[in-house]
Specification:
2 copies of one chain form a homodimer. With about 375 residues, chain A is of the alpha/beta class. The first copy, chain A, contains 13 helices and 11 strands. In chain A, helix 6 crosses helix 10.
Chain lengths: ~375, ~375
C-alpha cells in the first residue's frame, strides 16, 4: 500500500515558488523523497496552507539546491530574475506549459540562463489549488526538460534529479519542439473541443438532450477554465494556429465533399481513415505495456456494497480488474458495470460471477 | 440483482430482421418482456446464432404485431418493401441512425407508410455483432420515433410499446429534425474528432507520445469503423456539412486571431467561452438527476482484490460509489483510484478509508 522507495537524493533542499496544485504536489513529492522543502507564495496565507498540508516550511531566507518556479507562464521570467537577484538557489526550473516565450523573456531581462533549465510536468490533474495536490501526481508521467545550449551540466543534473525524485520520467526536448508538441497534443485539441462544444451553445434543448458519450468525450476538455487557456493559447499562438488551421481546412474540405455528395463514392473516406491511423498512435493510458483488454459486462443493483461484492469475487479468483466503467440507468435502480480484464482472465471471471449468482447474458466482446 | 419488471405487453409477437448488435439486443429485451420473438437474417447462420443466445426462434412464416428492420440505413426501404409484400407484420419500424433518406426512398418505392414508424434507439454500444448484445442495452435511454403524418395510430402505439418494452424512453421528433439533431450530437462530432486525430497520423513519435487524457478523449470516437461512418455521413450529408462548416469557420477565425496576436487582448476568448457554455448544456451520464459529485483519491496496490477492499469499506459504511476511475502508473505496482461520491458522503468515506489504513494525503477537491 506504500509508494515504492526512490533512490537517495543528492538534492538536500528545494524551494517551491508558487503553492498551487503543481507547486504543492512537487513539494509533497520531494518531502516524501527526503528533501527539505521551503515554500514561497506571493500570498503568504497560501504558503502557510501548503505547509499545513505537509508540503514543507515557509521560506525564511535559506538558499536551496533548486528553486522551482511554479507560477503562470507569463510570470516565469520576472520571477526568475527576482529569484536570481536574491540568490535563492544554485539552479532554477519552471513548470510552465509553454517554453519558448518564458525563455525569450528571461534572455531579454538578462537572467542567468546557465543555471536555468525549463521544465514541464505532463498529464497532471484538471483540478487546481493546493487542496487537490498529491505527492503521486507525477508518478510514471513524462516531464519535459528543455536545457538551453548554455545550461551548466550541474544545473541540468540537479533539475533532472528533482524530476526523478518526483517519480516522473525526464524527456529532453528543445523549447521550440516542446511548444510544437504541446500545440499538437494539448492546446489545439482544446480549441477543437471548444469549437465543437460551441455548436451546442445555441442549439435547441431537444437536440442537445440527445447527446451521448461520443459528444461528451469530444467536448469534455472544452469545459476547462477559459482564463487559463487564453493565457496558454496566447503564449503558444503560432504553433497552435498551424494545427487548428490544418484541422479547419480538413473540415472545410469534408463539408464541401458532403455537399457535393450525390450517392456515388462515399465522401470523407480519406479523413476518416487518417483519423483512425492518428487515433491508433496516441498512447493508451497504461503507457503501452498492457495488451488489448476484454470487457465483461454485469448488471448490478445501484446500492452500496454491490460493486464491492463483484470485485471481491474477482479478487478471490485472483483476477486483476484493469479498469471499471459504471453506467447508471436513468430512473432505474440498476447500473451496468463494465470490467476490463486481460483476455485470458475473462472466462474465469465470467464463470466466477455466474457461480455467485450474477447474470451475464451473453459472452463478452473479444 | 434482477431487472425491474415492466408493465404487461399488449404486443404478443415481434419479428426482428437483422440479428446484429441492435437487432439481437431488441430481441433479448422483448423476450425478457414476455413477447414471442422471431428472427430473420439474410445470413441464416446469424439468425441461428442469435437464437442460440436466447434471442428467439428462427422465423418460419409467422405474422407478427411489429417487425423491426435492424438493417443498415441504405437497406431499410428495400427491406421494408419486401417485408410488406410478404405481409410479415401489422406494423413496421427501423433502427437506422438517419431517418429522412430511408423514408424518402420508402415513399418512392411505394411502401405503405401508414404502418411504418421510423425509430432510432440512441446511445448503444460502440461494439457490434450479436455477441455484444444484451437485453439492457436500451434501458433508460432515449429512443427517437418519427411517425410520418400518414401513420396509423395503431402502428404508432405498437411501435411505442416495443420501445417501452425494451426499457427505453420514446422521444417523438419529425424525421428532418432527428437528422439535424444527429448531425449535431453524433455525426459532426465524429468528423471533428477524426480531423483532430488525423493530425496525429504523420506527427513525430516523440510528439505523439506526449499526448494525455485530453487528446485521448477528443479523438476517442475517431477510432470507429470508417465503413460504417461513411454510410452514416453520406446518408446525412447536408446537415453534417452545416455543422462541420461552422466548426471549420470558428477554427479558421481562431487561427487567424492567434496569428495576429501581438500580446495585447487574449485571442479566442469568445470561442472558449461559447465552448464552456455548450459543454455545460450536454447532459451528464446520469440524465441530469445527480448533483455535483466529490472525488476521493486513494493510492492502491495494483493487485487483485485491492479495489474490492476499498469498495467493501465503502459498502460497509453505506456509501454509494457513483463512479470510479483507475489510473495505472507506468512501471509502478500502484494505481490511483478516484471514487466519485455525493459530497455529503465524502468525509465519511475518507474517515472510513483512513481508519482501515489507506492513506489519503490531502482533503479532496470540493
Amino acid at each position: 500500500m506504500s509508494v515504492p522507495r526512490r533512490a537517495r537524493l543528492a538534492l538536500k533542499r528545494i524551494t517551491v515558488i508558487g503553492t498551487g496544485l503543481i507547486g504543492t504536489s512537487i513539494a509533497l513529492a520531494m518531502r516524501q523523497a527526503g528533501a527539505e522543502v521551503l515554500l514561497i507564495d506571493r500570498d503568504p496565507a497560501a504558503a502557510r496552507l501548503a505547509a499545513e498540508l505537509g508540503a514543507g516550511a515557509p521560506w525564511s531566507g535559506e538558499s536551496a539546491d533548486v528553486a522551482v518556479l511554479a507560477v503562470p507562464p507569463s510570470a516565469v521570467a520576472r520571477t526568475l530574475l527576482d529569484a536570481q537577484e536574491r540568490g535563492l538557489a544554485a539552479a532554477y526550473t519552471d513548470v510552465a506549459s509553454v517554453k519558448v516565450p518564458p525563455l525569450d523573456e528571461a534572455a531579454r531581462l538578462g537572467c542567468d540562463l546557465r543555471i536555468f533549465v525549463g521544465g514541464h510536468p505532463l498529464g497532471g490533474s484538471e483540478r487546481s489549488g493546493p487542496l487537490a495536490a498529491r505527492p503521486g501526481l507525477f508518478d510514471g508521467r513524462p516531464w519535459v526538460l528543455c536545457p538551453a545550449g548554455v545550461a551548466d551540466r550541474a544545473a541540468v543534473e540537479s533539475v533532472t534529479e528533482l524530476v526523478t525524485g518526483c517519480g516522473a520520467t525526464p524527456v529532453v526536448m528543445d523549447a521550440a519542439g516542446h511548444d510544437r508538441a504541446m500545440a499538437l497534443v494539448s492546446h489545439a485539441p482544446h480549441v477543437v473541443s471548444a469549437a465543437m462544444a460551441a455548436r451546442f451553445a445555441d442549439a435547441p434543448e431537444g437536440m442537445v438532450g440527445l447527446a451521448g458519450q461520443g459528444a461528451r468525450d469530444v467536448t469534455r476538455i472544452a469545459g476547462g477554465a477559459p482564463s487559463l487557456w487564453q493565457e496558454i493559447l496566447a503564449a503558444n499562438a503560432r504553433p497552435v494556429a498551424d494545427v487548428i488551421e490544418a484541422v479547419s481546412d480538413d473540415l472545410a474540405r469534408a463539408a464541401a465533399a458532403l455537399r457535393a455528395h450525390a450517392g456515388r463514392e462515399p465522401p470523407v473516406t480519406d479523413l476518416l481513415a487518417r483519423g483512425v491511423t492518428g487515433h491508433g498512435r496516441i498512447p493508451v493510458k497504461r503507457g503501452g505495456s498492457a495488451g488489448r483488454l476484454t470487457t465483461v459486462t454485469v448488471l448490478v443493483a445501484d446500492r452500496p456494497g454491490e460493486l464491492a461484492l463483484i470485485l471481491q469475487a474477482a479478487g478471490v479468483a485472483g483476477i486483476n480488474i484493469e479498469d471499471i466503467s459504471i453506467e447508471h440507468l436513468q430512473g432505474r435502480p440498476v447500473g451496468v458495470v463494465e470490467l476490463s480484464v486481460a483476455p485470458d482472465s475473462a472466462p474465469h471471471l465470467i464463470a466466477e460471477l455466474r457461480t455467485r449468482g450474477w447474470s451475464l447474458p451473453v459472452p463478452p466482446e473479444r
